[in-house]
Amino acid sequence: MTGRPGPHPPVAELPADAVCSALGTSWRGLSKAQARDRLTAYGPNELPRTGRRNVWQPLRAQFTDLFAVMLIVASGITFLAYALEEPRDTGTLTLAVAILGVVVLNAAIGFAQEYSAERTAQALEAMVPRACRVLRDGELLELPARDVVPGDVVVLEAGDAVPADCRVVEAHELAVNNAPLTGESDPVGRTADPVAAGPLLQARNCVFMGTDVVAGSGQAVVFATGAATEFGRLYRLTAAAPPQKTPLQLQVASMARRVAGAALAIGALLFAVRLPTGEPVVDLFVFALGVMVALVPEGLPATLSVSLSIGVRRMARRHALIKQLLAVEALGSVTVVCTDKTGTLTQAEMTVTEVWAADRSHRVTGVGYDPSGEVADAAEVRELLRVACLCCNARLLPPTNPRERWRVLGDTTEGALLVVAAKAGLDREAEEAAAPRVTEFPFDSDRKLMTTVHRTGAGLQACVKGAPGAVLERCTDVALDGRREPLTRTQRAAVVAASDEMASRGLRVLAVARRELNGPRPAQEEAESALTLLGLIGMHDPPRPEVTDAVAACRRAGIRVVMVTGDHPLTAEAVARRVGVVRGPDPVVVTGEKLDAMDDEALGELLTEPSELLLCRVSPEHKMRVVTAFQRRGEVVAVTGDGANDAPALKHADIGVAMGASGTDVAREAAAVVLLDDSFASIAAAVRLGRAVYQNIRKFLVYLFSHNVGELVPVLAATFAGFPLVPINAVQILAIDLGSDVLPALALGAEPPESDVMDRPPRPRGERLFSAGLVGRILFLGGIQAICVSALFFWHIGSSGIPFDDFTRHTRVYQEAITMVQAGIVLSQFFNALTVRSDHLSIRTVGLATNPALLAAGGFGIALMAAISYAPPLQAVFNTAPLDAADWAVLAALGTVPLLADEARKAWLRHRSRGPEGGPG
Ligand SMILES: Nc1ncnc2c1ncn2[C@@H]1O[C@H](COP(=O)(O)OP(=O)(O)OP(=O)(O)O)[C@@H](O)[C@H]1O
């Protein structure tokens, strides 16, 4: 059972205290035992999976699509032809059965693929972290959202998804986006006061599952979970939308349809051309039908989907969860990555290393969040740290076993402040007991500061921390040796110099200030003006070790990496240099302020310059503007984001990348990719895999379409040369399409990335999959294959000395010749599979054994061909004959011709582009 089936008390109309007692809870939350009991009673806070499609629906779809219907009709006609034939030919019956086999096999592949894609999607969905913060026994815990029960007190902050339906009991500037429920997208403010009776969705003191907190903070008591929530009711009414097809899937499907049209036309043409030869009409009809069926690339869309879902799984293994299939192919064509700094390029494990107070700088010892270190024992430092830690919401968690480290629950910047305060012997909870918090004006990246107001013995005190510029402009005084003095121009300059000096060493700098207030709860404006500056705090955030290589790889791959940060330009530049985002002497550093002063044209020009670019002190709106400007220039942009207000940029970018470990639920919902480990290196890895997916698709397209040329040309040649029989019959063609070629195509779709995949520029935006290059390669390889097998056929027929008109289906020489044609195609496809693995690198560079599955798949095809040639029952079906060793030797030699020709073409290409082989071409 999920969620409470019965009605809940009228929570909206009751005052906050009464809500708590009505729901059997308190301001300290439920006890752990109560929570356990309620979880058993109400079930997990999950939605029933009613929207999932049943298993039969996709299976039925496999038999009702255009190709399947065409094939079923074709099979029916062939059966009819067999019934009408006089005398009956088992070949016709085999063909009819084979066509039905095609339908069944295709449906099986398609169904298995869809089923596994659905399973993958579910598994991935489950991996996206969905946690929330809950008070239990007065302790703040982070729990999976599914463990939330009615009566839980949930702590909410901007960026959180609301885990269940709750009544707000405390609100600080709290606003939510109710769009998923009400469709109205403007943020709506929430209050903790009771409201008049009315529709629950309209109650201004309730927040609902499926919606997001967009601003402020607060606490709320859960009154409905799972299916009992408003969202649960809505969810039951809507069926899950079927997954959308990606542009590549659409391109391949449309190409497959066009080829099918061409196959129909060719079949009709062959029928018409051969009709005057006097062959029986039924025979001719069956033959034309067979050619049509053979040319239709039925398995192509399924092979494509397999290839895409292999990409999805590989990316998941590299910590990049794909939420939209579209992202797999888009990742392969990224040209610009706009990346955050903290957490993505750095470890987000901040350590305060320096404190600046009363004109003096003090070193802080210790590393990470372990509070065993030292800080100067001076009164001004202590006061600075007291105010800083009062103005925090994060919590420091001690290790629970010797292998664990200290952790931070909440914002990492605040975590570092709590650690340095602890080093000075200050504990936030004790400080807050002495000076209880009255209200809070939460941090936001536009203001770049945060304020809390506390009740002290003497009245109220506002504690402010934030970016030095933002705090300094609100300060009128400075604390110096225990006195409050006016902040003179010289003083101000000294603070800025100290802050810049710290920032230029890569430290994140925060300023801390205070204001004494009298009277009632102050407005934000009042609490954040006429402040007294207490000092600066500098924290170090070490770069992630793996990022330097990833940034270098992106550079080689022609991808521009632009750092977008809310931090100080000097801090940003120092970090950018450390990870290699900036290498030259003069990066272009643009602040949010400068961006505001630029019009779109000036911004466009700025982005056109190929310089190293740092965007600093920017807000999420700036991010959105930069993404749009890059896109206007035709770039394919990936952008990272973690905050709630990053959502528009994440949605708008070609690939929105959200942080799985540290990001907000809102950002994760808006993104196409979620990074489980938050690291930039995972973006680079996903780009590499995305490029590989695209290359692999091209590989199996060349592979599959070249044999179509190899099959069709000999048939046309025989028709126009006046030979009365076909050089390869329809059942043989089907054996190639469905027997020997399927597995190598799948193995090509699963190829590991080529070694130099990140040494080439991104593919141009809007490049068609079926480019001139791709079609050219198909005609080149397929054409050579076609010439070889046609020559083989006519040479074998011709050398027998039997006149054309004396040949019948059962002439031994004819049976040998068609066996040779089929085996010729199979062998040449074996070598083709090897050569299509790279469009410019020699097979010697790629390595023969680097895709063992491909060799095994090719080997299976050859074994199948041998069985068709030697096993009497198969000989009867295919009208084939045993080949001797000399035949095989000739076939193997001819089979290598396309490979050798392609090697020569590649060598020439490499020579033309950068000289002799060795490096990437
Ligand atoms: N919790 C906080 N309270 C007060 N000020 C903060 C807090 N977190 C950050 N700041 C200040 O606001 C500035 C901007 O922070 P913001 O979080 O918007 O940057 P960001 O884009 O996350 O930076 P980065 O690119 O480093 O991740 C920081 O440089 C810091 O000075």
Automatic annotation (TrEMBL):
All residue ranges annotated as the Cation-transporting P-type ATPase N-terminal domain in the record: 10-83
Subcellular location: Cell membrane
Protein name: Cation-transporting P-type ATPase
Family as reported in the entry's similarity comment: Belongs to the cation transport ATPase (P-type) (TC 3.A.3) family. Type IIA subfamily.
Transmembrane intervals: 63-84, 90-112, 255-273, 285-308, 769-797, 817-836, 848-868
Reactions it catalyzes: ATP + H2O = ADP + phosphate + H(+)
Membrane topology classification: Multi-pass membrane protein
